[in-house]
Amino acid sequence: MFPNRMESYRHSFGKPLEIRMEIQRENEVQRRIFGLLLDVSPGGAKIFSEYELPLGTVAVKFFFKINHENIAASGELVWKSAIPDGWVYGVKWFADPVKEMLIAEEIKAGISIS
């Protein structure tokens, strides 16, 4: 079986990074919450939150820092899984080639300095 070559590579962190999320409806921020960034790729991420959030029905803005670069990305929650202390979510970034390139470059830079 061959891996899907179109899949984005993912980078997991030894210690999860803090992430801020803004749940939006009709272009207005409805809720701000904090969580942990478990892994990231140019195409999406896996995050942890203590709160249960709706899938796919709202836009979410994510704010996090990789290395020393502040990143703001928008996306949607595409899957979730309950765990004892909260929820793990899969995030798919909305298409943004510049943001995808920035995330890829920061992942590469972080790997090379580790």
From TrEMBL:
Which Pfam families did the record assign? PilZ
Domain of life from the UniProt record: Bacteria
The chain positions of domain PilZ read 6-94
What terms describe the molecular function in GO for this protein? cyclic-di-GMP binding
Q: What is this protein called?
A: PilZ domain-containing protein
Q: What is the lineage of its organism?
A: Bacteria, Bacillati, Bacillota, Bacilli, Bacillales
